């Protein structure tokens, strides 16, 4: 007898199209495993966008989508000054169209900055990658300079990742770095904005290996915080409160006190045992 097919109990209406089930492939775009494999196979030197402030580290490329031409933050090692360089001037000899904004990468050492941070600190230091390595700084009135060899409060910046992926840089006076248009239509860098608008948003790119390094550090921190910390009190006391490789050492006076305490303790126990025995004999 032929086996009967099991009918679906789902209601269907005339004219409804039957949807075919599509099996998700392992390599389908959007799956977490595919994304991890793609990141693992990424060239360590590839320039990528950071997704969190902690990922902004190492060689850093900073540019602004100014109109009519985007500009990058360059360092002039001769004058020790920050220069806003127009990227659309970098056309090839065959006059090919400019590269898409987010596909741009640095093609000169003057466009590369080195970002460092103190472990656990939300602030970063931005140092030039060319010359002798000068730190980007801003004073109380918002003047931006890059001529200092040492870092202090004026050389500290707090990166803020915006919802669209762009980055705003806040200085130690809680003012934001911005691209400002001055007389004659020229552009200059300032750090005196109270709010984040178009002028205060920058695109930032870092190398993939440093972004991966930051993510691995975060995973280690999360793993260390998952379980409660177990403390071996006895072992800790012997290691940190004893001499002679964990052997407790006390003075002769302390030894006498300890012996007397033990002796008194034994006598007390004997008296208690004696009383308990007398009580039991009384009721027998």
UniProtKB/TrEMBL annotation:
The keyword Magnesium does not apply. InterPro entries: Actin-crosslinking, FRG1. Residues 8-23 have a biased composition (Basic residues). One of its GO terms (molecular function) is actin filament binding. It is found in: Nucleus, Nucleolus. It holds the Pfam family FRG1. The keyword Ligase does not apply. GO terms for cellular component: catalytic step 2 spliceosome; nucleolus. Residues 1-56, 213-233 are annotated as: Disordered. Its main location: nucleus. Keywords: Nucleus. Belongs to the FRG1 family. This is Actin-crosslinking protein.
